[in-house]
Amino acid sequence: MRVSEVHAAESVAYLNRALVRLQDIWEEIGIPEEQRLQRTNDVHKHIKGLLDLMIAEEEELKKRLLKSIESCLKELNHLSSELQLPPFEEEDGCTMLQIEKNSRTRLEVMKEHKRQRMEELKSLICKDRELCDIMCTTPFCIDHDSVPSLQQLESYHAYLKDLTKEKERRHDEFVSVKKEIGTCMEDLERQAETSFEMDVMCEDEEAFCLSNDNIAALKLLLSQLHEQKAENELRCSALRIKMQELWERLQIPQEEREALSEHMVKSKKRDIEALQVEVQRLEVLKMQSMRSVIEAIRAEIALFWERCFYSQEQQQAFVSYHSDDFTEETLEVHEAEVKVLKKYYEDHRELFEGVTKWQENWTLYLELDKKANDPARFNNRGGNLLREEKQRADLQKSLPKLEKVLKAQIDLWEQENGAEFQVNGQKFLEFVQQQWANHHAEKEKEKLERQMKKSKQTQEDMLYGTARTPSKRRIAGTPTPGKIRKLNGTTTISTPNSFLSSGLGGTMCQSSIQKPPLSASKGLGLRTPGHGRTPRALDRNKENISHLNRHTPSATLRETSQRLLNRM
């Protein structure tokens, strides 16, 4: 039993005891029944009124509790809807007071959530406005009056994070481009003129609006400045080239050239003005020394003719080259020709350099090949012979490869230009083939000459017995040259050339010459055959030689050599 119920039972018992005590008192006093009844009614009314009042108060408390619960639940449902949270549900088995307390507590928590979300939204909106003012962008689309959901706040945070990164990127780009613009303006020696340029060059970088249009205009301004700078550089480059050409043609002293050295690097306005003044001065000098200038241009034209492999006919086509009329018109014609040649050479530089390389390698190959046939090369020291042979072999391999590459380049050039590529008035490939053919023909000619010379020398040796210069070393058992031995009344003269190697047995044979008559020896002495000898002595010598040839193996060799000579 509850304590409240015990107290209620005790109250009822006490009320009963009190009524009984009142009855006893009334009885003792002797109050009549009518007054007792009246007094009892008064007690009843008093007790009833007190209880009714208490009941009314409690009923009122109950109503307030119900009203509070209803109000809390209603507000909770509204906040749940605003905060996009699930609705509040009452717990089963709770008393009215517990429900009211729980509802009020839950309501306070949800009100705090709402307040925090609204403050966070307000902060995000403020930051968004700042970024929008700087970048001229559209604010984030969100209701400023309603309570945002957690997803909306997260999206807003992500949006502002990306926007902040974009702002930092644009600011870095702005700072970088601004620096480049400042450098270009400094190089161009100009100041900010338009309001936009003034905003760009303003010291307060945060004041510049980082909108897409402004960034695009910033890049456009930078590109325009770059174009102006490039134009100035091209202008200065052209003036410098022109000035260099005039310096060379007019042979300007180095001291005068160095006076303009400070204007030969940069391309500022004062540099352009200084170069223009110098070019104008040189133009005046050029007109005053027309002949020397034209001759200098002709030397340059001749150099390009050589580089471009112009034939004699192509050179003769430029008639003004041989003109003696040194006028301004002649100068203009020569300058135009130089420009054409320069452009022609630059357009086909790679091809011309390849042909030049081939010619240099070809010349070196011919020199090395000529040295290879020189007997004196065996007397060198220091390994030059081995190096030259290796270099010649490398060139012999690399020349065809280079010719193949040049052929492909020339074919492409002829397809693009619709004309034949010529070297000295001849197609390059025909020129190469002709060079190889001439080289082979020259080698065949030299080979034939050596064979003829060797055959002639062999014939003379066999015919007249001419002795060659003996080597320092003699074959073992060979008699000393010039030693005479008497055998059976005949004189034998031994010479190095009198020994022939036998093809079968490998034995050595001596050729013998009969001793001439004593009278002939005393009268004529020992003489070279064919010089100062009498016809009779010559006839005798011929008989001895023919007799000798019939009995020696050299006769066969001489007959073979004679047949070879007859065929040649």
From TrEMBL:
It comes from the Eukaryota. Transmembrane segments: none annotated. One of its GO terms (cellular component) is mitotic spindle midzone. Keywords: Coiled coil. Residues 471-495, 516-538 are annotated as: Disordered. One of its GO terms (molecular function) is microtubule binding. Residues 431-461 form a coiled coil. Gene3D superfamilies: 1.20.58.1520. InterPro entries: MAP65_Ase1_PRC1. GO terms for biological process: mitotic spindle midzone assembly. PANTHER family: PROTEIN REGULATOR OF CYTOKINESIS 1, PROTEIN REGULATOR OF CYTOKINESIS 1 PRC1-RELATED. This is Protein regulator of cytokinesis 1-like isoform X2. It comes from Xyrichtys novacula.
